[in-house]
Amino acid sequence: MNALIEKWKELIGQLEVLKTYYSRLTERERYIVITSASGGLLFVMFMIFIIFVSATSSMGNKITAAQKDLEQMRNLEKTYNETEQQVREMEQTIRMTSPDFQLATELERISRKYKITIESLSNRPGMPTPLYRESQANVTVKGVNIRTLINFFHDIETSSNLMRITTLQIKPDYKDTSLLNVTFVVSTFQAK
């Protein structure tokens, strides 16, 4: 506590020296000292203002960038949740597929519904995976109109058994260009 009192006394003593020195100055010299001190004070205040504005601007930019990052994170979370839901639905559909499901039989049933004649149908194994068994069928259909083809494909894709058209090649029929010749691959998936 005494050290603090001593510091204050020393500071007051220095202020007394400055006051004595100032009182000895002429009017013109006092004007120069006041102007210089005022200019220095204004300069210091201006620098503090610049630093404050710069910090505020920088903080504003950081907030804007953080808000953009947050929005991007929300969009990614939404996409992730939607994808996760789709995967769960596919896994559920795969588990619901009967173990004795026959891809060729199902394709023939759907083709009869639309009176489509399947020219050729051959089964082949799909890509091996540790989680499920993929079966594929190469199918060739000739002379079908586009509306019937769309309905046929729709029934395949929306079947209660998970079937997906993985490859598709469409050409106009050379005898009747209003009809189409189609070659496609259908994949189905069953739990192991």
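That was protein one. Protein two is written in the same sequence-then-structure order:
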Amino acid sequence: MTRLSVNLNKVALLRNSRALGIPNVVQAATLALHAGACGITVHPRPDERHIRPHDVFALAEVVRSFANVEYNIEGNPFENVLDYARKVRPHQCTLVPDDPGQFTSDHGWDLSPGARDGPRLKPVIAEMQALGIRVSLFMDAEPSSMALAAATGADCVELYTEPYAKAFATPEQTSVVERFAAAAKAARQAGLLVNAGHDLNRANLAPLLVAARPVAEVSIGHALIADALEFGLSATVHEYLAVIERASEARVSGR
């Protein structure tokens, strides 16, 4: 079944608005993992607007205290993520082509012939894998790009799902879903695991999981933390896991 990794950036963002240390990022991670989340994701940015260096190390210790859960560090390997990978050795690094001041992730890597991303990524990926880290590339849902992602040596792709989220419940949903399904299929044919993330929520998650099946992991932060303000973090994790379970049952039954 698809793994749920809880992104804690927004918990850290709220904490950083005051000097009180609340909400506590470590406590949030502990609650999410006790509730059944399969992992924790962080995206530490150079400006430390949310996750800060001490969080990266503290959360690594939290994850190590649980059995069969994973730690995923996201970010640009040409800024700070490679240094964290060397020191923390998370289970997975998701490499994202963010500029230092970028508001949020909004595009995948350009691996087209002649672009500089592919040649730059290959040695970074090789180094991370030598450290025992699984490497995922943040990619737009373009089927033709999946073989190029595999050629870098990456283990996975994370499909950038904001275009799907924007198209959800609109006339464009069917065509966009078909493109994501095709990209996922192309990735698996290239030998890659398929992850997904960005703007996924309780409403749009299941249709994507059914269409793009099998999806190894979804990383969800903004919507999940927003839901937690209403329902509580543990109950919200339970609800997202229930959505994933229903999607898995629909896939098995062929619905």
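The chain has eleven helices and eight strands. Keep this in mind for the problem set.
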